[in-house]
Protein backbone atom coordinates (compact mmCIF):
# COMPACT_ATOMS: atom_id res chain seq x y z
CA UNK A 1 0.00 0.00 0.00
CA UNK A 2 1.90 3.02 -1.26
CA UNK A 3 -0.04 5.36 0.98
CA UNK A 4 2.48 8.15 0.51
CA UNK A 5 1.47 8.26 -3.16
CA UNK A 6 -2.25 8.64 -2.57
CA UNK A 7 -3.24 12.13 -3.64
CA UNK A 8 -5.57 14.06 -5.91
CA UNK A 9 -5.87 17.63 -7.03
CA UNK A 10 -8.70 19.87 -5.86
CA UNK A 11 -10.52 21.34 -8.84
CA UNK A 12 -14.07 22.14 -7.71
CA UNK A 13 -13.43 25.86 -7.42
CA UNK A 14 -11.90 28.57 -5.28
CA UNK A 15 -13.04 30.89 -2.54
CA UNK A 16 -12.57 34.63 -2.85
CA UNK A 17 -13.18 37.43 -0.37
CA UNK A 18 -16.09 38.72 -2.45
CA UNK A 19 -17.74 35.31 -2.01
CA UNK A 20 -17.87 35.72 1.78
CA UNK A 21 -20.70 37.01 3.93
CA UNK A 22 -19.81 39.52 6.62
CA UNK A 23 -21.15 37.13 9.26
CA UNK A 24 -19.64 33.61 9.50
CA UNK A 25 -22.98 32.08 10.48
CA UNK A 26 -24.53 33.33 7.25
CA UNK A 27 -21.69 31.85 5.25
CA UNK A 28 -21.94 28.60 7.22
CA UNK A 29 -25.65 28.45 6.37
CA UNK A 30 -24.83 28.78 2.68
CA UNK A 31 -22.21 26.03 2.80
CA UNK A 32 -24.41 23.73 4.90
CA UNK A 33 -27.27 24.18 2.43
CA UNK A 34 -24.94 23.28 -0.44
CA UNK A 35 -23.73 20.21 1.48
CA UNK A 36 -27.35 19.08 1.95
CA UNK A 37 -28.23 19.77 -1.69
CA UNK A 38 -25.18 17.75 -2.76
CA UNK A 39 -26.64 14.82 -0.80
CA UNK A 40 -23.53 14.36 1.31
CA UNK A 41 -23.95 11.61 3.91
CA UNK A 42 -24.47 13.11 7.37
CA UNK A 43 -23.81 16.76 6.45
CA UNK A 44 -24.49 17.76 10.07
CA UNK A 45 -21.76 15.50 11.46
CA UNK A 46 -18.81 17.29 13.01
CA UNK A 47 -15.63 16.25 14.73
CA UNK A 48 -15.49 17.62 18.28
CA UNK A 49 -12.02 17.97 19.80
CA UNK A 50 -11.59 18.40 23.55
CA UNK A 51 -8.66 18.27 25.94
CA UNK A 52 -8.63 17.13 29.55
CA UNK A 53 -7.06 18.87 32.53
CA UNK A 54 -3.67 17.35 31.64
CA UNK A 55 -3.88 18.67 28.08
CA UNK A 56 -4.52 15.25 26.49
CA UNK A 57 -6.73 15.86 23.41
CA UNK A 58 -9.32 13.47 22.07
CA UNK A 59 -11.82 13.64 19.21
CA UNK A 60 -15.12 12.10 18.22
CA UNK A 61 -17.94 12.64 15.74
CA UNK A 62 -21.11 14.28 17.08
CA UNK A 63 -24.13 15.71 15.28
CA UNK A 64 -24.92 19.39 15.01
CA UNK A 65 -28.41 19.88 16.42
CA UNK A 66 -28.86 23.60 15.97
CA UNK A 67 -26.97 26.83 15.46
CA UNK A 68 -27.58 30.56 15.47
CA UNK A 69 -25.62 33.73 16.11
CA UNK A 70 -24.73 32.40 19.58
CA UNK A 71 -22.99 29.24 18.37
CA UNK A 72 -23.28 25.53 17.51
CA UNK A 73 -25.29 23.09 19.66
CA UNK A 74 -24.95 19.35 20.31
CA UNK A 75 -26.25 16.92 22.93
CA UNK A 76 -24.60 14.15 24.90
CA UNK A 77 -24.27 12.26 28.17
CA UNK A 78 -23.08 14.75 30.79
CA UNK A 79 -20.92 12.07 32.43
CA UNK A 80 -19.09 11.12 29.22
CA UNK A 81 -15.43 11.72 28.55
CA UNK A 82 -16.20 14.75 26.41
CA UNK A 83 -18.30 16.27 29.18
CA UNK A 84 -15.58 15.67 31.76
CA UNK A 85 -13.06 17.28 29.42
CA UNK A 86 -15.29 20.32 28.93
CA UNK A 87 -15.75 20.67 32.68
CA UNK A 88 -11.96 20.81 33.09
CA UNK A 89 -11.22 22.80 29.94
CA UNK A 90 -14.11 24.44 28.05
CA UNK A 91 -11.94 25.34 25.04
CA UNK A 92 -12.97 23.08 22.16
CA UNK A 93 -12.82 22.83 18.38
CA UNK A 94 -15.28 21.62 15.75
CA UNK A 95 -14.50 20.38 12.25
CA UNK A 96 -17.06 19.87 9.48
CA UNK A 97 -15.29 17.60 6.92
CA UNK A 98 -17.24 18.07 3.70
CA UNK A 99 -14.61 16.22 1.68
CA UNK A 100 -16.52 15.58 -1.54
CA UNK A 101 -17.05 19.34 -1.82
CA UNK A 102 -13.36 19.87 -1.03
CA UNK A 103 -14.39 21.99 1.94
CA UNK A 104 -13.80 22.19 5.66
CA UNK A 105 -15.21 24.47 8.33
CA UNK A 106 -13.16 24.75 11.53
CA UNK A 107 -14.60 26.36 14.64
CA UNK A 108 -12.61 27.23 17.77
CA UNK A 109 -14.31 28.51 20.89
CA UNK A 110 -15.70 27.69 24.30
CA UNK A 111 -18.36 25.14 25.20
CA UNK A 112 -21.11 26.21 27.58
CA UNK A 113 -23.83 23.92 28.91
CA UNK A 114 -27.35 24.46 27.62
CA UNK A 115 -30.28 24.76 29.98
CA UNK A 116 -32.22 21.71 31.07
CA UNK A 117 -35.24 23.21 29.34
CA UNK A 118 -33.34 23.28 26.04
CA UNK A 119 -32.23 19.69 26.59
CA UNK A 120 -35.80 18.56 27.31
CA UNK A 121 -37.18 20.26 24.20
CA UNK A 122 -34.63 18.44 22.03
CA UNK A 123 -34.95 15.12 23.93
CA UNK A 124 -38.67 15.05 23.14
CA UNK A 125 -37.88 15.16 19.40
CA UNK A 126 -35.65 12.07 19.52
CA UNK A 127 -36.97 8.68 18.39
CA UNK A 128 -38.17 6.62 21.33
CA UNK A 129 -35.35 4.08 21.00
CA UNK A 130 -32.83 6.93 21.14
CA UNK A 131 -34.46 8.20 24.31
CA UNK A 132 -34.23 4.74 25.85
CA UNK A 133 -30.62 4.37 24.71
CA UNK A 134 -29.71 7.57 26.56
CA UNK A 135 -30.78 5.82 29.78
CA UNK A 136 -29.24 2.45 28.89
CA UNK A 137 -25.73 3.69 28.05
CA UNK A 138 -23.36 5.03 30.69
CA UNK A 139 -21.28 6.64 27.99
CA UNK A 140 -17.49 6.20 28.16
CA UNK A 141 -17.68 3.75 31.10
CA UNK A 142 -16.12 0.29 30.73
CA UNK A 143 -18.62 -2.30 29.45
CA UNK A 144 -18.05 -6.07 29.81
CA UNK A 145 -19.90 -7.05 26.63
CA UNK A 146 -22.36 -6.05 23.92
CA UNK A 147 -24.80 -8.47 25.50
CA UNK A 148 -24.71 -6.46 28.72
CA UNK A 149 -25.57 -3.28 26.80
CA UNK A 150 -28.51 -4.99 25.09
CA UNK A 151 -29.78 -6.23 28.46
CA UNK A 152 -29.58 -2.74 29.91
CA UNK A 153 -31.56 -1.41 26.95
CA UNK A 154 -34.26 -4.06 27.29
CA UNK A 155 -34.52 -3.42 31.03
CA UNK A 156 -35.06 0.29 30.44
CA UNK A 157 -37.55 -0.45 27.66
CA UNK A 158 -39.51 -2.70 30.02
CA UNK A 159 -39.34 -0.15 32.84
CA UNK A 160 -40.99 2.63 30.83
CA UNK A 161 -43.32 0.44 28.78
CA UNK A 162 -45.41 2.64 26.50
CA UNK A 163 -45.21 5.64 28.81
CA UNK A 164 -43.22 8.83 28.43
CA UNK A 165 -39.46 8.48 28.70
CA UNK A 166 -38.17 11.14 31.12
CA UNK A 167 -35.07 13.22 30.45
CA UNK A 168 -32.13 11.66 32.30
CA UNK A 169 -30.51 13.97 34.82
CA UNK A 170 -27.13 13.00 33.32
CA UNK A 171 -28.03 14.01 29.75
CA UNK A 172 -27.96 17.46 28.18
CA UNK A 173 -26.41 19.75 25.63
CA UNK A 174 -23.66 22.24 24.93
CA UNK A 175 -23.28 25.29 22.78
CA UNK A 176 -19.88 26.02 21.25
CA UNK A 177 -19.53 29.80 21.26
CA UNK A 178 -17.12 30.55 18.40
CA UNK A 179 -14.09 32.77 18.71
CA UNK A 180 -12.85 31.90 15.23
CA UNK A 181 -14.55 30.25 12.25
CA UNK A 182 -12.37 29.16 9.31
CA UNK A 183 -13.66 28.30 5.85
CA UNK A 184 -11.29 26.10 3.81
CA UNK A 185 -11.76 25.43 0.10
CA UNK A 186 -9.41 23.07 -1.69
CA UNK A 187 -7.42 24.56 -4.55
CA UNK A 188 -5.35 23.20 -7.43
CA UNK A 189 -1.61 22.66 -6.93
CA UNK A 190 -2.27 22.64 -3.14
CA UNK A 191 -2.91 26.40 -3.28
CA UNK A 192 -5.97 26.17 -1.08
CA UNK A 193 -8.16 29.11 -0.07
CA UNK A 194 -8.56 29.77 3.66
CA UNK A 195 -10.44 32.59 5.34
CA UNK A 196 -10.81 32.95 9.09
CA UNK A 197 -13.36 35.09 10.91
CA UNK A 198 -12.15 36.38 14.29
CA UNK A 199 -14.55 37.72 16.88
CA UNK A 200 -13.85 41.32 17.81
CA UNK A 201 -14.74 42.72 21.24
CA UNK A 202 -17.07 45.13 19.49
CA UNK A 203 -18.18 45.66 15.93
CA UNK A 204 -18.24 43.19 13.04
CA UNK A 205 -16.16 40.05 12.66
CA UNK A 206 -12.64 40.57 11.31
CA UNK A 207 -11.81 38.47 8.22
CA UNK A 208 -8.31 37.38 7.21
CA UNK A 209 -7.00 35.24 4.36
CA UNK A 210 -4.58 32.58 5.57
CA UNK A 211 -1.79 30.92 3.65
CA UNK A 212 -2.63 27.33 2.70
TrEMBL record:
It holds the Pfam family PNP_phzG_C. Its EC number is 1.4.3.5. Residues 32-158 form the Pyridoxamine 5'-phosphate oxidase N-terminal domain. The gene is pdxH. Homodimer. This is Pyridoxine/pyridoxamine 5'-phosphate oxidase. Its cofactor is FMN. It comes from Microbulbifer rhizosphaerae. FMN binds at residues 60-65, 75-76, 81-82, 104, 139-140, 184, 194. HAMAP family: PdxH. Keywords: Flavoprotein, FMN, Oxidoreductase, Pyridoxine biosynthesis. GO terms for molecular function: FMN binding; pyridoxamine phosphate oxidase activity. One of its GO terms (biological process) is pyridoxine biosynthetic process. Belongs to the pyridoxamine 5'-phosphate oxidase family. Binds 1 FMN per subunit. It catalyses: pyridoxamine 5'-phosphate + O2 + H2O = pyridoxal 5'-phosphate + H2O2 + NH4(+); pyridoxine 5'-phosphate + O2 = pyridoxal 5'-phosphate + H2O2. Residues 171-212 form the Pyridoxine 5'-phosphate oxidase dimerisation C-terminal domain. Catalyzes the oxidation of either pyridoxine 5'-phosphate (PNP) or pyridoxamine 5'-phosphate (PMP) into pyridoxal 5'-phosphate (PLP). Substrate binds at residues 7-10, 65, 122, 126, 130, 190-192. Pathway: Cofactor metabolism; pyridoxal 5'-phosphate salvage; pyridoxal 5'-phosphate from pyridoxine 5'-phosphate: step 1/1; Cofactor metabolism; pyridoxal 5'-phosphate salvage; pyridoxal 5'-phosphate from pyridoxamine 5'-phosphate: step 1/1. SUPFAM superfamilies: FMN-binding split barrel (SSF50475). It is an enzyme of class 1 (oxidoreductase).
